[in-house]
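FORM 12-B: Structure-to-Sequence Request
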């Protein structure tokens, strides 16, 4: 490929496609790229045309079919600005009624308004319009500022906006942290209640459940009593002494109760 063609491709790749919504800004970019290259008027004219989309080409067909003999680039630029740039009336209309700060810095809003004004509106009027779009906190600071220079006021407004934004972010974080602390405390209290209920249920089950050792002791005691109630055992007690002990007035032999009366004596004792 010839060096001239390589050079043309390299230059073209650096130029963005035509910005229909910002034609004047687009030409700022193009001229900044082409200025150090020392290209001829014909070459610059061709490069601009190569970056125009179809919907733009169809609107300048008459111009392209019969291009001027001289100053092709400048005349093409003026043609495109006339077609796609807002009229002066429309620019003033947007300047007065359609500007908003939104998420921009105050200095960025001022830049957009200056671009629309383009020396058609004096700085004093532009300052009033610009401040009308700013939040009350920023306007209050600018009113008492010693300077009236728009650039200095824009710098002050940016600083106030940044400080205000940082304060708001800090407040949001504090509120969020406080809210999270309340939620954690609430969850902790609920968990404590649940643990208390589970402990009560466990204690209740323990009271109704006989331990194995108690059951074993009960069984041993029952066996011991069974042996005592079996006639013929050395420690067998009759039903009277088993029940009434020393208060028994009767005895049925062979009773192991110490000092129990003889069967004959027991027969003469009155019944309980």
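FORM 12-B RESPONSE
SEQUENCE OUT:
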């Amino acid at each position: 490929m010839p060096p001239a063609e390589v050079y043309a491709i390299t230059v073209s790749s650096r130029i963005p496609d035509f910005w229909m919504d910002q034609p004047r800004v687009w030409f700022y970019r193009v001229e900044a790229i082409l200025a150090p290259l020392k290209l001829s008027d014909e070459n610059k004219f061709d490069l601009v045309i190569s970056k125009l989309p179809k919907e733009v080409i169809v609107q300048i067909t008459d111009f392209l079919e019969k291009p001027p003999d001289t100053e092709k680039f400048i005349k093409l630029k003026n043609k495109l600005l006339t077609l796609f740039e807002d009229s002066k009336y429309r620019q003033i209309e947007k300047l007065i009624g359609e500007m908003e700060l939104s998420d921009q810095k105050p200095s960025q809003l001022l830049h957009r308004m200056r671009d629309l004004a383009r020396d058609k509106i004096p700085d004093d009027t532009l300052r009033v319009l610009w401040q009308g779009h700013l939040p009350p906190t920023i306007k209050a600071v600018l009113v008492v500022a010693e300077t009236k220079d728009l650039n200095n006021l824009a710098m002050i407004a940016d600083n106030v906006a940044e400080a205000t934004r940082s304060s708001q972010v800090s407040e949001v974080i504090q509120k969020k942290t406080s809210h999270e602390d309340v939620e954690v405390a609430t969850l902790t209290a609920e968990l404590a209640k649940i643990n208390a209920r589970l402990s009560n249920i466990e204690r209740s089950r323990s009271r109704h459940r006989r331990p194995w050792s108690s059951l074993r002791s009960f069984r041993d005691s029952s066996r011991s009593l069974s042996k005592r109630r079996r006639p013929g055992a050395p420690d067998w007690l009759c039903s009277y002494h088993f029940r009434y002990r020393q208060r028994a007035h009767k005895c049925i032999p062979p009773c192991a109760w110490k000092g129990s009366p003889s069967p004959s004596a027991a027969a003469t004792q009155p019944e309980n």
